[in-house]
Amino acid sequence: MSDHKAQETGALADRWRTNTHVPVMPAEVLELLGIRPGGTYVDATLGAGGHASLICAAVGAEGRVVGIDWDPDALRVAHGRLAEWGDRVVLRRGNFRDMGVILRGLGIRGVDGVLMDLGVSSLQLADTRRGFSFRGEGDLDMRMDPSLSLTAAQILNSAEMDELTSIFGQLGEIRRARALARAVIKRRQIAPLRTVADLAEVANEVLGGAGARRLHAATNVFRALRMTVNAELENLRAGLEEALRVLWPEGRLVVISFHSLEDRLVKDCFRRHEGRRMSLPEGGQRVVFDPPRVRILTRKPLIPRADELRMNPRARSAKLRAAERVENGA
User: Which of 27, 107, 207, 290 falls 20 to 30 Å from 150 in CA-CA distance?
Assistant: First the structure.
């Protein structure tokens, strides 16, 4: 590693420590993954490596953990954090929708568990240059993978009224989405929106500040743009299917989501693959349509305990769902 890269990685690690990254719902994750000593597990959203470190400890010396993230900054920080586990862990850059390709490249035919901890990471929020937080001073970038073609600024400064309204209304769940889209277009006619402060100012003018609400008005605006830039819902749909494909029978998929759109996708995926059973007149049931691929382990999503929220307020909106791959699933 060059001196420049070493200094950059050290700075990233300092920002991570300053913001005290803590893995969300760690006990629940380990329990529902059903860690088997000697097993193979995937942390498909590696981040700073908090969950992966716990999984490494649980699988033992014969186990293996594959960490995947498409953010090179996250991989550099996680590499330092996970160095103590040596060959027990291997890190790869990529999107979880490409999990199968990544695993085949490592000679891994199947795995015993997959974790997906969705959304933006503490590390990304801490780096104000990248534009994920409306409290920063950086440019409107928001790319989790720097090689992606479109930034948030490019979308804001080029999208038509209907597209912006859809982004703010559907992904941000903002009631005054059209008024916000109109204000963005009016603002960019004067000067392009380039910085976090530019967008936060427009959002505040249209939607108001935090006021008595729990969330600042700009929170959902930034979330909607981030999800658009990174095609998060499209990748999640594909990633969930990919995770089910790579699991061995009795392997488990654990997903932590942070807002209703993600949680709904996870819930619908699990229900769809659970199979549908029809009661028979003579008693019993039979499967209709496709055979079941999973057994749902969490009928209702788990949420963080009160003691965790006291220590880690950022976990407040987390919802965890889990499912187990069944033997006869295709």
Answer: 207
Domain boundary among 194, 229, 264: 229
Position 137 in a domain: no
Domain C-terminal end among 229, 259, 274: 229
| Tens-digit pLDDT profile for residues 238-252 | 999 999 999 999 999
Average pLDDT, the chain: 89
CA distance 31 to 131: 35
Domain of residue 317, CATH code: 3.40.50.150
Is 50 exceeded by the pLDDT of residue 9? no
Residues 299 and 193 in one domain: no
DSSP per-residue string spanning 102-113: HHHHTT---EEE
Query: How far, in Å, are 137, 151, 162, 213, 265 from residue 203 at the CA level?
Result: 15, 18, 17, 15, 27
**Residue 145: is it exposed, middle or buried by C-beta count within 10 angstroms (0-12/13-18/19+)?**
middle
- Cα angle 178-181-183, degrees, rounded to a multiple of 5: 110
- CA 22 to chain CA centroid, Å, is 15
Per residue in 72-113, pLDDT (tens digit) is 999 999 999 999 999 999 999 999 999 999 999 999 999 999
pTM above 0.90, yes or no: no
Contact 188, 199 (CB under 8 A): no
* φ/ψ (deg, to 5) at 200: -60, -40
Strand partners, 255: 116, 321
Kindly state whether residues 113 and 13 are assigned to the same domain. yes
Residues 33 and 106 both lie in one domain: yes
Residue 215 to residue 173: CA distance in whole angstroms: 13
